[in-house]
Amino acid sequence: MDAPALARLIRANQPCVVLTGAGVSTESGIQDFRSPTGIWAEFDPAEYASLPAFRADPIKVWRFYKPRIAMLAEAEPNAAHRALAALEEAGLVEAVVTQNIDLLHERAGSRNLVEVHGSIRTATCPACGSLYPRAAVVAKLERADAPPCDNCGAILKPDVVFFGELLPAAAIERAFELARRARLLLVVGSSLEVHPVAALPEETLSAGGRVAIVNKGRTPYDGRAELKVEGNAGEILRGVAAELGAN
Fold it and tell me: Rounded to whole angstroms, how far apart are CA atoms 201 and 203?
C-alpha cells in the first residue's frame, strides 16, 4: 500500500482537491455502476436512469430507484469518507467533488462538498416545482411505488442527474474552478469515464498541477498520474490520514 507516498504528495502539493466516484462507497455496501458486477451490467441506464425514460414512465423508474434509495438511507460512511473528512478538518483537503448521490461524505463530516450529480437529499415535482426532503419521499414510497406531489399529484423526480440531463451549473462550474486551482487532484474510486467530470484531471494537469489516483481498475489518466494506487479506498485513505496526523 502506498499510503506514505500519497501522504507525502498531499502534504507537498496544496491545495489538494478530491474527486470521488462510486468506488469510494462500495465499502459501505453500495453497489457501483460500471464494474463488471455493477448496476449497469444488470440494468440498461437508458431504460431506468435517463430523463426520457422518466418522462415516459416515471413509475417504472421509481420501481428501480425505490429499493436503492432505501439502501442508501441505511448505509453508513466508511473509513474512506471519514478519512477525507478528517483531512479536510486538518486543512489538507480543500474540497471534495463527488459524483455520488448517497450523502455519505456529508454524514462523515465533509463540509466543502460539491455534488456534481445531485443527491438523494430532495425530490422535486416536475409539474409545479414543489420540493420534498428525503424523509418525506421515503414516507411516500412506503405507501406507493412512486411518490406523488401533494399539491398537484404529479410524480416527483429525485434530484439526481439522469442521463440526458444537464449537470447543476453552479456545481460543475465550482468543480472545474477547484480543479484548475488544485496543485493536487486526488481521484478516489472513479473510472473517469463519465463526462464532463472525467475532464477534471485535464484541468488540473493543464494548469500545472498533479494528479493522484486511488482506484480498483484502470482509468484514462493512469499513465499521467504522479501516483496510482490499486486497492480499497478505506484502507488506503485511513493510512494516509494516519501518516498526516489527521486520524
Answer: 5
Residue positions counted in the chain = 247
68 CB neighbour count, 10 Å cutoff: 16
3 state SS of 103: coil
CA 18 to chain centre: 11
For the stretch 124-176, pLDDT in tens is 999 999 999 999 999 999 999 999 999 999 999 999 999 888 899 999 999 99
* Section 81-85 average pLDDT: 98
Let me know if 117 is a catalytic residue: yes
* CA 174/CA 180 separation, integer angstroms: 10
Q: How far is CA 224 from the centre of its chain?
A: 23
For the chain, the average pLDDT equals: 91
Q: Write down the catalytic residue from 81, 105, 117, 195.
A: 117
Domains and CATH numbers, the chain: 1-30+77-117+167-247 (3.40.50.1220), 38-74+119-160 (3.30.1600.10)
Neighbours of 69 (CB within 10 A): 21
Residue type, 76: E
Total-model pTM: 0.91
Taking the C-alpha atoms of residue 126 and residue 206, their distance in angstroms, rounded to an integer, is 39
Query: Helix, strand, or coil here: 229?
Result: strand
Q: Which of 81, 95, 88 is nearest to 30 (CA)?
A: 81
Q: At which residue does the C-alpha cell 498533479 appear? A: 210
42 pLDDT exceeds 80? Answer: no
